[in-house]
Design brief:
two-stranded antiparallel ribbon; Rossmann fold; 38% helix; alpha/beta; 173 residues; 5 helices
Length: 173
């Protein structure tokens, strides 16, 4: 939805100022997760560099030049540093990620960056269905996809649903 919104805004506005800034580029590297015994929890709030993400958002808010950002590459299951440039003219930013409204240290500090917050709130059944489909789309067989979705992924989704602060706008899905 974030990408669709950015495309729609850029179709309507001169200079294409909208850009999506996903938090996924701030996944800790697998070597760090292994050292911290967190690999099985990858995708949970503690497996992200939340401080680094906050620092990037502050830079994007205050600096005028082009800024390099990391991108998560799902095909290799790793973040690639400085893999994308957000241009100096792209300051209509749509920040996307699961934990942007999380009521925990560091994540709470994000609220000072945002002008408007939107929470997409599907049912847990819809989330489970989408998670299974995501893993099917990545080549897992149906049993493995369901197992992966119902494990850590669904746990993380429940964290989002139960520990997020209220948004300015909530969209039921």
């Amino acid at each position: 939805m974030a990408d669709a919104l950015a495309l729609a805004l850029n179709d309507q506005l001169p200079d294409h100022p909208a850009e999506v800034v996903p938090m996924d580029g701030f996944h800790y590297d697998n070597a760090i997760l292994d050292a911290r015994h967190l690999r099985a929890r990858k995708g949970a709030p503690e497996t992200f560099d939340a401080d680094g993400f906050l620092a990037l958002l502050r830079r994007l808010r205050t600096e005028k030049g082009d800024i390099a950002t990391p991108v998560f590459d799902r095909s290799i299951d790793l973040a690639r540093g400085s893999a994308r440039i957000i241009g100096h003219h792209q300051r209509l930013l749509i920040v996307e990620g699961n934990y942007l409204l999380l009521n925990r240290p560091v994540w709470l500090d994000l609220s000072s960056i945002f002008d408007v917050t939107v929470f997409l709130q599907p049912t847990i059944e819809t989330i489970e269905k989408r998670l299974i489909q995501r893993w099917l789309d990545h080549g897992l067989d149906p049993e493995a996809a369901a197992l992966r979705a119902r494990g850590n992924d669904l746990t993380n989704a429940k964290t989002v649903l139960t520990e997020s602060r209220s948004a300015d706008i909530t969209l039921q899905q």
